[in-house]
Amino acid sequence: MAVRTASFLLFGLFVTFHTWGAWADMEVNMEDRVEVYKGDTAQITCMFTSSEGIGNTIIQWFYVTETGERQKIYYQDSMSQIVDRATRFTDRISVNGTGATGEVVLTIRDVQLADGREFICLIKNLTDDSKGSTQLKVFGTPDLPTIEGVQTGISVNEVSPSKIGTCEVKNGFPRPNITWYRNNTPLQSVPDEVEIVPSVTSESSGLFSVKSELNLKVVKEDKNDEFYCEVSYFVPGGTRMTETHRINISVFYPPTAVNVWVESPKGNIKEGDSIELHCEDNGNPPSSIISIKRFEENNSDGQSLDGEVLVLNNVTRRDSGVYQCTSIDSDTFQSISGNVSVFVHFLDAAVVIPQDTIVVAMGEEFKATCNALSSLKTQAEWLKDGEVVFKGHTLTVKDATFDKAGMYECVVTVPEIEEMKTSGSIFVNVKGPPEILKPDNTEIESYDTTVDLSCMVRGFPAPKIIWSTSDGQDLEMASEMMTEDGLQSRVSIQVTSDITASCNASNDHGTDALTFNIKTQGSGVIIAVIIICILLLAILGSVLYFLYKKGKICGRSGKQDLTKDKSNKDNIVVEMKSDNTEEAVLLGVNGEKQSPNEQ
């Protein structure tokens, strides 16, 4: 007996199965544990050997109750296979194998959590018996975990740790574990700083639900932290993990600095703009007691506005200065301030020297300067007739002529601010004798009785213009108008025959004249029309007489004398009268005279 026991113990050192047996010649080998999910099918294998063979073998299956007793659920011998009735496994088990191969398999369908217990396989023959056992482990996969953060803000002034959130995982078996993380770092309980409070609920289904609450003594740096939970749970053959989504918390803290800035306009500010100043402290939430005011050195009184925005409309250079924003903590009533400097750029009206109008002698040189007081660097351009003639603050014009006389405009701009612009002007008169601008044509042909003439004269002082004609017409009604090109004079002249008209201009420095030659075309046309009419009437009379002789008109008809002398045939006559005689002469078509009797 001692030898058999020693042999059995030596065998147990080399295998991972539980083996019980009273005799060394009967051995039963089984797995330590079988793991399955709830609802799956479990298979427990029992392998046995015997020195006497496996004939006449009795196979029995048992499970261990909660009180430690063995409950038989199956019996098999060479003649029968019996599943015990009225057990929790009666309708869910089956056994494969007759024992002839030395192996039987207990199959349990629809495994439940309560099925997790020890199962025993007992093998008997005529002389020996032996048994082995396997622990059945049942697992339930939990639901996905959830996390819920606090909706209200948490103040850094709280004395004790404040609730951050709650994690929960339901319906797991065995009991799942929850671990809190902050920014990928696991949290553990620290007195007065971190508190993790777990709780476990056993559901009626036998599954476990676990909840964990995190309490934390928050600081300002926690405002951007992310918190989440990791849940680990057992599965057949190992463990698995899953995570919740990440949450943030609102941390309330007092301000440590105040920021005040110019919201608009962006960049440089110029006179006439509207300025919008904004102010904000770095506390959370921002202070509700905040104001912006104009800060005067040695005098804190100035323009002030309660609130986060100050608007200044149509600003001038006098609005330049330092503006201060003050924030007061509503809990401690401590104040903190911030400043911003505002500078309003300006550009005064352009000043042109000499002013208004200058007089320059013909051929001389003249200069003019143009400047405008500004807070920024300026540049100037001189324009004449809309075109740039010079760039710079000082205009220099050499060898003055009438073409160089007129209005000069100076435009001063600020390159850094496109909208800043001002201008001034000067009018230049060039002193000299009159100069009449020659028109394209002074030879005029007219069919009308009235001709309109125009004369453009340059010169300074303004010339006096007198019109005259070759037939001595009174032309006192001429009209004059000053234009950019000079003095323009217009006159209307009565024309009955060819004449000449002269424009005479004079001033203190000399004279100039322009002559127009006017030719009338009216009398020659009338004579030509009369001659053409006489010729048309003569032709018409010849045609009528020809028709008369042929009997086509005046009622003549009938046969003509075909033997009539050819000289009398087809004669067409024209009656010609002169102013000196009343004698009518009839000419034949051959140019022969006809007597009155032959008419």
UniProtKB/TrEMBL annotation:
Q: Name any GO cellular component annotation.
A: membrane
Tell me which CDD domains the record gives.
Ig, IgC1
Q: How does it sit in the membrane?
A: Single-pass membrane protein
Signal peptide start and end residues:
1-24
Key words, A-Z: Disulfide bond, Membrane, Signal, Transmembrane, Transmembrane helix
For this protein, the parts annotated as crossing the membrane are: 525-548
Recorded hits in InterPro entries, A to Z, give:
CD80_C2-set, Ig-like_dom, Ig-like_dom_sf, Ig-like_fold, Ig_sub, Ig_sub2, Ig_V-set
Q: Please, which domain of life does this record's source organism belong to? A: Eukaryota
Q: Where in the cell is it found?
A: Membrane
Know the name of this protein?
Answer: Melanoma cell adhesion molecule b
Give yes or no: UniProt keyword RNA-binding. no
